[in-house]
Structures are given as C-alpha cells and as structure tokens.
Design goal:
Helix content is 4%, strand content 41%.
C-alpha cells in the first residue's frame, strides 16, 4: 500500500507560527482507489478545505469547494475512484484549514438571548474599537455589542454552541491554536458555522470544557474582577480572503419581540424557554429546560 502524507498549516492572517493542526493521508487501497482521511490534532472542531489542481485517471465527484468539518481525532473524507482500465490515479491538491465555516450562510434572523441574568435590566453601549482582537490590526469593517456590567455578574450563553476556546488572564499555549488574541474570553462554534466570542468572562469553577456543547441560557461564567463591560462578537472566516465577516445579531427584547440592540440603559433581559430550546434535541430539552 502506498501512502502520501501531507502536513498543512493553520491559515490565519494574524499568525505565522508553523503549526500543524491537521494531518491528511491519501492511501491507495487494494483495488487502486485512493482513500482520503484526516487527523485533527486540535482539541476542537476545525474546517478543512481540499482543492484539487490536477487529476489523472480519476475524478473528484464531491461538491466544490470541498469543505469538511473535522472533529478532534480521526476523520474519513472521501475516495477517489480509479477509472476502469486506466492507470494509477495521480493528483495534486492544496489544503487550508479554517476555525469557522467559510461557506456558512449566517442566520441573520436568529434570536439571540441577552447574555445577562433573566429578570435584570441590560445597559447597552456602542463598542468603539476591537483593540487586541485581531493582533495589532483591527478589521476594516466589524460589529460588536457591548453591555455595561459589574464584577462577578453571571454571564449566559446567547445561543447554543460548542466551546472551542477558553482563555484566562494570560495566554500560554500555542498561538497557532488561538481564535483571536483576547484574554478572559469564551469562544463557541455555533450551529450555523459562525463563531461567537464573549469578552470579559471567566470560568472560576472550570465547568466549561473545550469541544463540549453549551446550551442557550446556560451560565458560562462570570465577569472578572475590575471589568465593567462585556463584549459579544459574532464572526466567521472568508474562503479566499483573510478578512473576517461579522454578524449583527437580533436579540430577544421581550417574550414576543426581537430586534437590534441600540445604546440603551433599560433593556429587559428575558430568556424564553421556547428560544432556549430552538437548537436542542428532545432529549436535550428534557435535561436542560426545567
């Protein structure tokens, strides 16, 4: 059996470290077909793009561009079938990885929960900058929502998602695995393929775990000491550009109303059970909606 091993780098405009989060193998099987598999060496899901530049004695029948969500560990990809009465399949291909789905069509009408305690009143402010989020460079066009808070205020998930990064006051891990450069933050991969980041939140009880699902309305942590603002940011990567795309979320304003949050000192915080359960299975609803 012949094996081709290809090691790829995490593609991100603000990091240059030679990290290798994903390993792809192309293995010829006993009938001459080529089975592609991948190993995600990171602790969180990651998106892989495979782009073939040249094919001989075979065809690639998957929809293009080919984007695959890789869970941590081993993942099967696809098989290049050898053409009948043809020689050995030959091919050249390029690979990229993305932290969010670059082909995702973000649900712009999805109702997000205000990430504060139900029954309280939210005070919203205009976020003036994203200092430190994108390294030394700030995106040209962006959107974020700011909430005035107090230390130790509880913070809740605005939407169901998979935890992909938890950062404390200091970053000491491999920069190639970072989703941004902010500290004291929680980042989740949402069901529509976008990422949501909560800045100025810590998990002192260490209840959150990377690659575990957290449901809308569940507490994800508290505001750290000396912090007086919580910033919520929803974004995704682009397929052929280093620029990020940002989502302006629709928030639940009352039991029967959604809309954009504008600077206001009095916005009621409600977490309707119906909204919390939108992205839960029946079993998840029985466990979490009590």
């Amino acid at each position: 059996m012949i094996k081709y091993f290809v090691f790829i780098l995490f593609i991100a405009g603000y990091f240059t470290a030679a990290a290798q989060p994903v390993e792809v193998q192309a293995n010829y099987n006993s009938v001459g077909d080529v089975d592609f598999v991948a190993y995600n060496n990171t602790p969180a899901p990651i998106f892989l793009q495979v782009d073939f530049a040249d094919l001989e004695n075979t065809t690639f029948d998957e929809p293009l561009p080919y984007i695959k969500l890789l869970e941590p560990g081993f993942n099967t990809l696809f098989t290049l079938l050898r053409r009948p009465d043809a020689g050995v399949p030959r091919f050249n291909y390029q690979l990229k990885t993305f932290r969010s789905n670059p082909m995702a069509l973000a649900d712009l009408d999805f109702p997000y929960l205000i990430p504060l305690k139900p029954g309280e009143t939210a005070s919203v402010f205009d976020v003036q900058n994203l200092d430190g989020f994108w390294g030394t460079d700030e995106p040209e066009s962006w959107n974020a929502t700011g909430f005035n808070v107090q230390p130790n205020d509880p913070v809740f998930a605005s939407r169901t998602g998979t935890v992909v990064e938890i950062t404390g006051a200091v970053r000491d891990d491999d920069p190639a695995n970072w989703y941004h450069t902010w500290t004291n933050s929680v980042t989740m991969l949402q069901p529509d393929g976008t990422l949501i980041c909560y800045r100025n939140v810590i998990d002192p009880d260490e209840k959150l775990k990377v690659n575990e699902k957290n449901f809308a309305g569940q507490q994800i942590g508290v505001v750290p000491p000396n912090a007086n603002e919580l910033i919520l940011l929803i974004f995704q990567h682009s397929l052929n550009s280093d620029e990020l795309r940002f989502v302006i979320p629709q928030f639940i304003l009352s039991e029967n109303e959604t809309g954009l949050l504008i600077s206001s000192p009095k916005t009621p915080v409600v977490h309707p059970t119906e909204i919390r359960g939108l992205e839960m299975s029946r079993r998840e609803k029985r466990r979490n909606l009590k």
